[in-house]
Write a structure and sequence with these properties.
This protein has one domain: NAD(P)-binding Rossmann-like Domain (Rossmann fold, 3-Layer(aba) Sandwich), CATH 3.40.50. α1 runs parallel beside α2 and α3 runs parallel beside α4. α7 links the parallel β6 and β7. 38% of the residues lie in helices and 14% in strands. The chain is globular. An eight-stranded mixed β-sheet has the order 3-2-1-4-5-6-7-8, sandwiched between helices. The protein is α/β, with parallel strands linked by helices.
Length: 300
C-alpha cells in the first residue's frame, strides 16, 4: 500500500530537479500524476516537451500512472486546461503542487522591468492561475481531502540581496497560501508552503560560494530526495491538521516556521507624541530584534 494510493496530483515544474523528484515519488506511492513542465531554461527560454515526457516515461516504466503536460503556468487559459487534464485523465484532482519557476537575478538598482515582470509572472501569477482553477473544481466537488502545496524560498523568507524579484514573488506566494488556507477549508482544502534546501539548477551557482552550507551534488544532505518526504506527507490524507503554515525541508532537516506574530508592542491611551513614540520604539524594540538572517546583520 502506497501512502498516496488513489490520489491524483498536478505538479508544475516537474520535469527536472525537485519537481521531478516529487512527481516520481508520488507515483511510486500510488498517486496518478500530471507532470507539468514547459521545459525552459533557468531564465525561461527555449521551451521543450522533453523534460516532462522523460519523467512520465520513468514513472510508466516503474509501473506508475502519469501523463505529461506542457502548459505555460503564466497563461490563465492553459492552466485551466492543465487542471482539466487531471480530471479528464484520472477522474479527479486531490493535490496541487506548485514548483515551476525561473530566476533572473540582479541587484535592485540594476534590475530591469522585464526581469521583474517575468519572474513575478511565473512564480506568483503561475501559482495563482493553477490554484484558481483547482479551487473552482474543489468548490464544485466538496467532500474530498484536497491539498495545495506551494514552493517558496529562503530567498524571500530571509531576503536574498541579489534576488529582489524572486524574493518578492515567493513572499507573495506565502500570502496567497495563507489566504487560501483561510478561504478553502470549507471545501476540504488545506494550503501550505514548502521552503526547500537542495542542490538544483537554481542553486548550482552557489557551489563553492555559500558559507551557510555545502552546496555540492556530492552532499547527500541537500539531495532533492531529502525535500520529498514532507511534501508526500502534506499531500496525504494524514496532513489534514496542518494548514496555513511554512515547512522547511532539506539539508537533513524538516522544520516548521513560526507564522508572523507581534513580539513586542508599545501602547498609548491617546495619540502618540512624536518624541515619545521614537523613544518607546527604540527602548522596546531594539533589544528584541534577532538576526537569523546573515544578510540582515548590521555591519560593525
Amino acid at each position: 500500500m502506497g501512502k498516496l494510493d488513489g490520489r491524483v496530483a498536478v505538479i508544475t515544474g516537474a520535469g527536472r530537479g525537485i519537481g521531478a523528484a516529487v512527481a516520481e515519488t508520488m507515483a511510486a506511492e500510488g498517486a496518478c500524476v500530471v507532470v507539468n513542465d514547459l521545459g525552459v531554461s533557468l531564465t525561461g527560454d527555449s521551451a521543450s516537451a522533453g523534460p516532462a515526457q522523460e519523467v512520465v516515461e520513468k514513472i510508466l516504466k516503474a509501473g506508475g500512472k502519469a501523463v505529461a503536460n506542457t502548459a505555460n503556468v503564466t497563461s490563465f487559459d492553459e492552466t485551466r486546461e492543465l487542471i482539466q487534464t487531471a480530471v479528464r485523465e484520472f477522474g479527479r484532482l486531490d493535490v496541487l503542487v506548485n514548483v515551476a519557476g525561473i530566476i533572473r537575478d540582479g541587484l535592485v538598482w540594476k534590475l530591469t522591468e522585464e526581469q521583474w515582470d517575468s519572474v513575478i509572472a511565473v512564480h506568483l501569477k503561475g501559482t495563482f492561475n493553477t490554484t484558481r482553477h483547482a479551487s473552482e473544481w474543489w468548490r464544485d466537488n466538496r467532500g474530498g481531502q484536497y491539498r495545495i502545496i506551494n514552493f517558496v524560498s529562503g530567498s524571500g523568507l530571509y531576503g536574498s540581496p541579489v534576488q529582489p524579484n524572486y524574493a518578492a514573488a515567493k513572499m507573495g506566494i506565502v500570502g496567497l497560501t495563507f489566504s487560501c488556507a483561510n478561504s478553502l477549508g470549507q471545501y476540504g482544502v488545506t494550503a501550505n508552503c514548502v521552503a526547500p534546501v537542495a542542490f538544483t539548477r537554481m542553486t548550482e551557482s552557489l557551489q563553492g560560494k555559500s558559507t551557510l552550507m555545502n552546496y555540492s551534488p556530492d552532499n547527500p544532505r541537500i539531495s532533492t530526495a531529502n525535500v520529498v518526504p514532507p511534501v508526500i506527507y502534506l499531500a496525504s490524507e494524514r496532513s489534514a491538521w496542518l494548514n496555513g503554515r511554512i515547512v522547511q525541508c532539506g539539508n537533513g532537516r524538516i522544520g516548521l516556521f513560526a507564522n508572523p506574530v507581534i513580539t513586542r508592542e508599545v501602547v498609548t491611551d491617546g495619540v502618540w507624541e512624536m518624541d515619545t513614540a521614537f523613544a518607546e520604539m527604540e527602548s522596546a524594540f531594539q533589544e528584541a530584534i534577532l538576526y537569523p538572517n546573515p544578510f540582515a546583520r548590521p555591519k560593525s
